[in-house]
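Hi U.,

Before I forget, here's the chain from the pilot set. I'm dumping it here mostly so it's searchable later in email.
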Amino acid sequence: MTRPASSVHMEQNSLLAIALMSSAMLIVPVMDIIAKYLSASLPPLEVTFGRFFFQFLICLVLATATGRITGLRGHHPFINYLRGIFLAAASLCFFTAVKFMSVATAISIFFVEPMVLTVLAALILKEQVGVRRIAAILVGLAGAIIILRPNLAEIGLVSLLPVATAFLFSFYLLLNRLYPVTDGLLTIQFSAGLSGSLLLGAALLIANLAGFEDMTFVMPSGNQAGLLALIGLISFAAHGLVVAAFQRGSASLLAPLQYIEIVSATLFGYLVFADFPDGPTWLGIALIVGSGLYITYRERKLKSAVAG
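Structure:
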């Protein structure tokens, strides 16, 4: 669940871009696997807070060490913090989802995001959406329904949280379209870490004061604190890899590689939790991935036509 948030462009190098993007997609599910493991003993709200808090600390340490502390405010701090709020809310939904379902299933459902983004862009940005992309959206949604049906029966409405994640992340991407990023990677990550920590920290405090079950703070052990720090580090590193990839390769080249995340999540989920998608789930995954790839293909063709 990560996308580029930097408008800086470097010399194009397709092979390096593919390697960077693939590496990011291989390690992102590790963060989700750790979150699922921790959610057995810590509230997902606390796990999500830890992810953003340690990301914030990493950025603060790096900025201090490199003498860039004064540049962390950025050119548009309000927009940067709003990006962080969307990411924090999306992460909370996803980390809560993986407590109850396999990481591979949750990620597969989340990948309705390109379809959601296409619909929201048409409604909010008034972008034109043709019949072919509408058909692809419907096919992708059919895939999501196939995956969701048994999960709805077994765990209830919590199985819709990956869909909520997709909506929140789509709003984050829409914000990037409306306000192109002009700040550096460290500034963007710092802003996300700070705003996410403040939002989730406030939610954790309110939950404790109100005595909400399964949301009250649990003092983590040394090992748990280390894993929370590792989640923050993986998030920081993966985002950096994605940004570096998109600086060196086109979106049309790199977007299909995001589906490596499903393969990685399936592998790690099987190794750690013995989770493996069944036949109908693989069918749903195929429909979602196919629809996402087709939407990417159509957007590339439309952009080429406009540029030509």
